[in-house]
UniProtKB/TrEMBL annotation:
GO terms for cellular component: chromosome. Residues 9-93 form the ParB-like N-terminal domain. It holds the Pfam family ParB_N. Gene3D superfamilies: Conserved hypothetical protein from pyrococcus furiosus pfu- 392566-001, ParB domain. PANTHER family: CHROMOSOME-PARTITIONING PROTEIN PARB-RELATED. This is ParB/RepB/Spo0J family partition protein. Residues 127-136 have a biased composition (Polar residues).
Length: 274
């Protein structure tokens, strides 16, 4: 990273662009308290921006300055590569309080960054040792596959396997949102922020639905339901429901999308009797 302008300059915040990674991982703006502080005292800490005016550090301060009608102090920095820019965005958010979801999103991007760097090192090494080989993109990957994962996990403060599971849950959350299942996405997010393993187990049903779609069929109610409760709990509820339906001389498994809110067999029976 090379700083281009050593002197702090003032800029109109409207001329600066937020980094897309900031919205992707953090997605928050200035709160009323920060806006009021900027109105009274201005922005005290300079923003870091690229040569093109893209914000690396200071998104909330910039947002507050816009709302407060204030200019912002900036330092212009040349980060060299897009990977370095993205890592700097994450690094400059290291002091904020983070949910597990945020750490998982940081991990996923940092893992991509580290894997890209490893690939670049491999290509450079191969071209030094084999100058005639110009097609570095097709070289086999030789570094330990888990190295990028381990580095990224350490940077976000998670164990590697936990980080991988959390990142997979985040992918499912995004899939649910894209499908318009916002309530289910929110429920899975809340679960992730409490327990990674619990949330990871609940993602299996989403993957089952996607697999069914690829096979040209609809997922069964059992498959769709599986992601909302644990396997043991599913078996217990399935047995109780089977007995209830048999007693009522009713066939089939009811398609009940509200299972995520169900905590007991009594609630299920109440739903069935509506």
């Amino acid at each position: 990273m090379k700083r281009i302008e050593m002197e702090i300059e003032l800029r109109d915040p409207a001329t600066l662009e937020p980094h897309p990674l900031n919205a992707e991982i953090y997605g928050d703006g200035a709160d009323a308290e920060l806006v009021q502080s900027v109105k009274e005292q201005g922005v005290m800490e300079p923003l870091l921006v690229t040569m093109d005016g893209v914000i690396i550090s200071g998104h909330r301060r910039c947002h507050a300055a816009k709302l407060a009608g204030q200019q912002v102090p900036v330092l212009v920095v040349d980060f060299g590569t897009l990977r370095d820019e993205e890592e700097a965005v994450i690094h400059n958010n290291r002091q904020r309080e983070k949910t597990t979801e945020v750490r998982a999103r940081e991990f996923a991007r940092l893992k991509q960054i580290e894997a890209g760097r490893a690939k670049g090192r491999q290509v450079e090494s191969a071209l030094r040792n084999q100058p005639q080989s110009l097609n570095g993109a097709n070289l086999p990957y030789s570094e330990p596959e888990g190295r990028a994962r381990d580095i990224a996990a350490e940077k976000v403060g998670l164990k590697p396997r936990t980080a991988e599971k959390a990142a997979q849950v985040v992918e499912v959350i995004d899939t649910l949102k894209e499908r318009g299942e916002v309530e289910q996405a929110d429920e899975l997010r809340a679960k992730l922020n409490k327990t990674v393993n619990g949330a990871f187990k609940e993602t299996k049903g989403v993957k089952a639905v996607e697999a069914a779609a690829r096979q040209g069929r609809k997922a069964s109610p059992k498959e769709k339901h599986f992601r909302l409760i644990s396997p043991v709990r599913y078996q217990s509820l399935h047995r109780d429901l089977f007995n209830f339906l048999a007693a009522q001389d009713r066939d089939g498994w009811p398609d009940m999308p509200k299972y995520a809110a169900v905590e007991s067999i009594e609630e299920i029976l109440t739903f069935l009797n509506r």
